[in-house]
Amino acid sequence: MISLKDSINILKNSIRSINDYPKPGIIYRDITTLLKDPQLFALTIDTCSQFIAEEVSTIAAVDARGFIIGSAMAQNLKKGFIPIRKKNKLPSNVISESYNLEYGTDELELHLDSIVKGQKVVLVDDVLATGGTAEAAIKLLAQLGADIVRIVFLIELVELRGRKLLEKYDYNISSIVKF
């Protein structure tokens, strides 16, 4: 059995960095290197899943790369899955929340019937950067009465200080790999 520390090192060393994408000055952390390799993908999901408590019933994840990780975690742990989508992607009644990115703005939506009040949920996304996307997802889940037990990010871009924005919510925040 591989240790958590070794798993994290393997994942970190396998993530590709692309300079000046999507605009000059940004270093994009590309997780497709983890997804295309069956062993690395399994290691990613197993490592992220270690941070989920048994009492959680549902994994909520943010469009789009968060879906890949969150849905695989939900399957791995036999939990339900809730997609938090970008604007105009959900077919039923929704609530929405706008947010700022490090390089623009966007909007997230959640079906009104996604959560039962008090339901224990883990929020999952691929990257914690400025924290705007995660904050919007938190607000959506909170509006519907979710009990957010933990937030799990595969990557945290420490220099962008997104964790600082999320500290006011007093959730357990776990980042697997930090850059």
Mind explaining what this structure looks like?
It is a single chain. A seven-stranded mixed β-sheet has the order 5-6-4-3-7-8-9, sandwiched between helices. It has a two-stranded antiparallel sheet with strand order 1-2. Helix 3 packs across helix 4. The protein starts with a helix and ends with a strand. It has 179 residues and is of the alpha/beta class. The protein is built from six helices and nine strands; from the N terminus they run H-E-E-H-H-E-H-E-E-E-E-H-E-H-E.
**What integer is the average pLDDT?**
95
**What is the terminal separation in angstroms?**
25 Å
Strand share of the residues? 25-35%
Principal-axes shape call: globular
Low-confidence stretches: none
What is the helix fraction of residues, given as a range?
25-40%
- Record field, number of beta strands: 9
Number of helices: 6
In this structure, how is the largest beta sheet organized? 7 strands, mixed
Structural class: alpha/beta
Q: Which H/E pattern describes the elements?
A: HEEHHEHEEEEHEHE
- Kindly provide the radius of gyration, computed on alpha-carbon positions and rounded to a whole number of angstroms: 16 Å
Side by side, the strands of the main sheet go 5-6-4-3-7-8-9
